[in-house]
């Protein structure tokens, strides 16, 4: 299912814009998603990720620009497009008074699928989501992670070509997140095109072939996680915690050791291709840091560099 | 595609029907017992001998049929609608699938009509067993009850879709539904009211519904009278549906 260059994109947005009153939530973004890709929108809260996802999901009309999803215009063909999408919205829309299985059965009916087909798929999907044991229990008492898995299972009932996941793992504990990532990997391997939003850089790095970094309704960078890191960051980062309330005071004392230095409230980040060497010099200069940590650069660093802010505050 | 939205509400109802039994069936039955048999005995023993020469129980039963249609419809169009928008958000799930606003609204209204048909049928059956309904014409009062349900449900869906929380519903029940229940002819002829109130009572939808049901159950309805009442309810339902479509669209499509 690797995309051919002449394959039409599943999503093509040009100058896509969304206003709420005089507030601009999405400010003229260009996006192309090709078949078989796992594509991410990475950005902090309020970046405009959900607004974009809802426009692509044909439940929110764009205020400007052009948008084509599966080659069709959401304004005129919203229903047809939605019939071929799977949608995992940021906030669950499960019917908590129904059982786990009933939620899938009813959702399948929305797509006009025959009952026998839905029943069969429901059993498979519950297996896939590791919910078979809870199939006939009510949704309400399930954990957040289980509800999220159910929402994902449900979104697959129409065998969508394109799966849209808005913050699929936000609010879940690490274990539940890894369980979900595992399911998403399997989907990706089976050829489903994934579009997801996240403000977790590790999630973006794990899951996305390509992503855009969004901030304030705009796209500030685009590429594969690796590309973005090599373009906007050094290979390694040295984190320094010093015995001070104001790390800014120390910036000048280390700025020559790194390509770039970021000052955070509780530490300094030194961007350098050789963190250990820099750390050694820091010690030699007698700066006596409380702790030093050398790590690989991540998308978090890219984001910090591009926007001057961290992803999760 | 509205039938797909209906499928959801039917599945949902299979899970929650027990809770609806009290309000849907027992309550009108209690009214029938307390008012019809308790109060009715006094009324029938009075100088007029019943109301307009009719046993009070026979007078009351079709009134309760209409009032129950209103209550069922209003209840099913308030909390479930706001819940489907705000709490459990089932409307959003439908909208993410191929369903559109008309499917969502129509599917829900048809479900409400089915609920009204259910409670009405059960009530008519029980009232007949009690001897509170004696005419086969009451069979025509069943579709009237369903139409009444739609005439109330549609504008109430429009109202519910504009609410931020459930406090508006208390107002609706207290200042619209309850007064109509008490003063629109369910328990006594509106002619008993002071003229000004009688005029107000006669423009309420419940009065038209009560008159229709009672006229059919007591075999006193004329064709012209029936046509006027039906027309009133149909127009109200039509306007209500338009308003419901507008409100739900405005709330869901941002
Ligand atoms: N329906 C709405 N009305 C007004 N403002 C909105 C609405 N939806 C989103 N916004 C605003 O648009 C901005 C982007 O929101 P959103 O797309 O949800 O961002 P994200 O998903 O990246 O957190 C936020 O500032 C948010 O408050
Ligand atoms: Mg969001």
From TrEMBL, chain A:
InterPro entries: AAA+_ATPase, ABC_transporter-like_ATP-bd, ABC_transporter-like_CS, ABC_transporter_ATP-binding, P-loop_NTPase. Residues 11-241 form the ABC transporter domain. It comes from the Bacteria. Pfam families: ABC_tran. GO terms for cellular component: plasma membrane. GO terms for molecular function: ATP binding; ATP hydrolysis activity. It is a peripheral membrane protein. This is ABC transporter ATP-binding protein. It comes from Phytoactinopolyspora halophila.
UniProtKB/TrEMBL annotation, chain B:
InterPro entries: ABC2_TM, ABC2_TM_bact-type, ABC_2_transport, Nod_factor_ABC_transporter. Residues 19-251 form the ABC transmembrane type-2 domain. Its main location: membrane. It is found in: Cell membrane; Membrane. GO terms for cellular component: ATP-binding cassette (ABC) transporter complex. GO terms for molecular function: ABC-type transporter activity. Belongs to the ABC-2 integral membrane protein family. This is Transport permease protein.
């Amino acid at each position: 299912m690797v995309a051919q260059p002449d394959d039409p994109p599943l999503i093509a947005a040009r100058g896509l814009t969304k206003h709420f009153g005089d507030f601009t939530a999405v400010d003229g973004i260009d996006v192309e998603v090709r078949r078989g890709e796992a594509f991410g929108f990475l950005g902090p809260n309020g970046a405009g990720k959900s607004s974009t996802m809802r426009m692509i999901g044909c439940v929110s009309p764009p205020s400007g620009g052009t948008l084509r999803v599966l080659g069709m215009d959401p304004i005129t063909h919203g229903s047809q497009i939605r019939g071929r999408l799977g949608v995992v919205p940021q906030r669950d829309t499960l019917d908590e008074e129904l059982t786990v299985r009933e939620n899938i059965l009813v959702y399948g009916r929305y797509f006009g699928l025959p009952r026998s087909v839905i029943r069969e798929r429901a059993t498979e999907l519950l297996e896939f989501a590791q919910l078979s044991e809870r199939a006939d229990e009510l949704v309400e008492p399930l954990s957040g992670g289980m509800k999220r898995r159910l929402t994902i299972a449900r979104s697959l009932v129409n065998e969508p070509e394109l799966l849209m996941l808005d913050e699929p793992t936000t609010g879940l504990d690490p274990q539940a997140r890894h369980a979900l990532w595992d399911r998403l990997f399997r989907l990706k391997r089976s050829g489903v095109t994934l579009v997801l939003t996240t403000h977790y850089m590790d999630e973006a790095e794990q899951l996305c072939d390509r992503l855009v970094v969004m901030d304030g309704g705009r796209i500030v960078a685009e590429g594969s996680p690796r590309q973005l890191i090599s373009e906007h960051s050094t290979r390694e980062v040295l984190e320094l915690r010093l015995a001070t309330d104001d790390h800014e005071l120390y910036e000048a004392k280390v700025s020559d050791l790194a390509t770039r230095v970021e000052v955070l409230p509780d530490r300094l980040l030194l961007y350098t291709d050789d963190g250990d060497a820099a750390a050694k010099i820091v010690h030699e200069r007698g700066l006596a840091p409380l702790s030093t940590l050398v790590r690989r650069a991540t998308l978090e660093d890219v984001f910090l560099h591009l926007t001057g802010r961290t992803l999760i505050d | 595609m509205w039938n797909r939205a209906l499928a959801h509400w039917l599945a949902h109802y299979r899970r929650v029907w027990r809770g609806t039994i009290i309000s849907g069936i027992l309550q009108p039955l209690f009214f029938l017992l307390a008012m019809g048999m308790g109060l009715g005995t006094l009324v029938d023993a009075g100088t007029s001998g019943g109301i307009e020469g009719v046993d009070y129980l026979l007078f009351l039963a079709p009134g309760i049929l209409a009032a129950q249609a209103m209550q069922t419809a209003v209840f099913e169009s308030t909390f479930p609608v706001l819940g489907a928008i705000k709490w459990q958000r089932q409307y959003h799930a439908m909208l993410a699938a191929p369903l559109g606003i008309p499917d969502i609204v129509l599917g829900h209204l048809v479900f409400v009509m089915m609920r009204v048909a259910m409670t009405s049928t059960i009530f008519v059956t029980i009232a007949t067993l009690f001897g509170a309904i004696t005419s086969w014409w009451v069979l025509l009062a069943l579709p009237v009850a369903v139409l009444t349900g739609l005439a109330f449900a549609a504008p109430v869906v429009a109202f519910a879709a504009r609410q931020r929380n459930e406090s508006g519903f208390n107002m609706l029940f207290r200042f619209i539904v309850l007064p109509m229940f008490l003063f629109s002819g369910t328990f006594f002829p509106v002619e008993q009211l002071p003229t000004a109130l009688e005029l107000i009572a006669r423009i309420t939808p419940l009065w038209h519904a009560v008159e229709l049901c009672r006229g059919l159950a007591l075999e006193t309805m004329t064709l012209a009278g029936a046509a006027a009442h039906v027309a009133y309810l149909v127009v109200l339902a039509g306007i209500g549906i338009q308003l419901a479509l507008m409100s739900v669209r405005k709330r869901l499509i941002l």
